[in-house]
Amino acid sequence: MNINTELLFTAAVSFGITRALSKFLNLPARSAPWDALLRRIWVPGVVLFVLAAIFRVKSELLNDGYWLLVFGAVATMLIRLGDYRPARTLLLAIAPFALYFAIQFLLSLLGTDIVRDYDDVFETTQGFAIFWMITFGLIARSQKKHLEAERLLREEEERNKQRIEAQNAELERLVSERTAALTQQAEELRYTLTELKTTQAQLIQAEKMASLGELTAGIAHEIQNPLNFVNNFSEVSSELLQELEEEQQKPTRDAELESELLADLKQNLQKITHHGQRASSIVRGMLEHSRASNGERHPTDLNSLCDEYLRLAYHGLRAKDKTFNATLTTHFDPNLGMVDIVTQDVGRVLLNLLTNAFYAVQQRQKLQEAGYQPTVTVSTKQGEECIELKVRDNGMGIPEEVKQKIFQPFFTTKPTGEGTGLGLSLSYDIITKGHNGTLSVESVEGQCTEFIITLPLTA
């Protein structure tokens, strides 16, 4: 190969080597200035090639000198990155090769014939330097992989630590909120209830029932209508009062108009009182259902109870997601008489099952299937020995392996923060242990789920 051509080849090789080093050491991130410098390391080689071609210089000194320049730049860069273990190893890898070129360049510069006289020695030394460089290059590559694995492990540990801290913070927040809510309830119950045991039972039950929030959302929706009436009639009454004041300030007052305004005001106040009492009645009724029971059974209209909690669960979810809509279907047995049950407990079971049903259809609705209409159905039927109550939805369905664990405590398929895993377990205990009934589930994954409650006609 012509010496000048070899110089151009050396420039190309040096460019490839420096690019490989830049990628191996991630220089753009670790040292952008050195990365920019090494990107242009081929420029001196091309310049030397052009000068040699112009002045017809054919000297190995140019090629060896250029190699020393490349090695010098690379070595300086590696020293600057001495904190990075693979960089130190690469510095050790190129040291013999750089020393070889330095000695050869120095001897050639002095004009001695040692290089030619000991050509075999120099070739052997060059081979050793190349072998040394390859060996330590592989070691550096192994070190980099090891460091990368350690970095990934540290990042994973840090992510796990952050997740644990976030979960702990969320748990602390939930405990704090629950404690504050229980404290407030305790203060209210201290002034409204006379029996300490009843108060204690209410607090314990309220703590266990995660569905209390859904009930509260339903209550808020139920009382919204009467409160809207109160607000509207209050605004109209204010306008009537203003009109009455203006009429009274006129020199010539219209007694008939004043009488009409007073009559309208009286009527509005009556409507405000009526709807205010209605809102108060709703709150009292809902609070009765939100309290923990004392375990006593009472004759209950099961059809009415199912219908009430169907609406409460639906409005509870809509309070969180205004865009959600579903079809509510009921098939109540008209011959179903009063049933002796613990009303509050069965109400909580219904609220839990219905809340899960609406959650299931909401999740399937998010898949945006063509023609899909979320539907939740509640039905009752009286048999010869028991009463059958069914809650059915056409939501996501339950996989077969999940159905085996669905009633286990703390098992939930909902994301973290959206389910406690206690709802179905407590519901199962209420029906099976508290009412001697059964609670089972049938489901087709991706199509529907149906919970079936049976209650014996005799206690």
UniProtKB/TrEMBL annotation:
The keyword Transcription regulation does not apply. The chain crosses the membrane at residues 37-59, 65-82, 89-109, 121-140. It holds the Pfam family HisKA. One of its GO terms (molecular function) is ATP binding. The keyword Nucleotidyltransferase does not apply. Residues 218-459 form the Histidine kinase domain. Its EC number is 2.7.13.3. It catalyses: ATP + protein L-histidine = ADP + protein N-phospho-L-histidine. Keywords: ATP-binding, Coiled coil, Membrane, Nucleotide-binding, Phosphoprotein, Transmembrane, Transmembrane helix. It is an enzyme of class 2 (transferase). Residues 139-184 form a coiled coil. It comes from the Bacteria. CDD domains: HisKA. This is histidine kinase.
